[in-house]
Automatic annotation (TrEMBL):
Annotated Pfam families: DUF2787
UniProt-listed InterPro entries: DUF2787 (IPR021248)
Protein name: Uncharacterized DUF2787 family protein
Length: 144
């Protein structure tokens, strides 16, 4: 399976590495997806992540299946926010279909270099966490 043919970018163009693409392509192929799947959501969860002890942020990714190709929809990194009643909220959001990159401290990021730098930093950290095998991964299919 060639990764450049598996994961397409539309709306945004970020420096997604081949290593990242290969990992996602493997997850997609391991779950023997049906041809009538409209989209897939992949969740990465550290079972020990909590307000009290911290841990590795939950991550959710969505990929759209269109014309026998897979397209990035979004990659969202969540964290607990709030002091009295903390809740999981978006910390970083890369949204190809919405054409934006968001960070909770900076808001919408408009400069291409800043988007690319944030993606590269986030992706590098995420791939390191994957190599540590700390995530429980679930894949959910959305049917047509």
């Amino acid at each position: 399976m060639q990764t450049q043919d598996v994961l397409k970018q539309a709306g945004l163009t970020l420096p997604v590495t081949k290593q990242f693409q290969q990992h996602i392509a493997t997850l997609l192929s391991e779950h023997a997806l049906k041809t009538k799947v409209r989209a897939v959501v992949i969740n990465f969860r550290d079972p020990d992540y909590s307000v009290e002890s911290g841990g590795f942020h939950p991550v959710e990714m969505r990929f759209i299946h269109k014309d026998d190709e897979w397209y990035f929809d979004y990659v969202t990194d969540f964290s607990f926010m709030g002091r009295v009643y903390p809740e999981l909220e978006k910390e970083i959001d890369f949204c190809w279909s919405g054409h934006y990159v968001f960070h909770y401290l900076a808001g919408d990021i408009s400069l291409a270099a800043e988007k690319n730098d944030l993606w590269s930093l986030w992706e590098s950290n995420f791939m390191e966490y994957l190599s540590m095998d700390i995530y429980r991964v679930t894949v959910t299919e959305e049917s047509c």
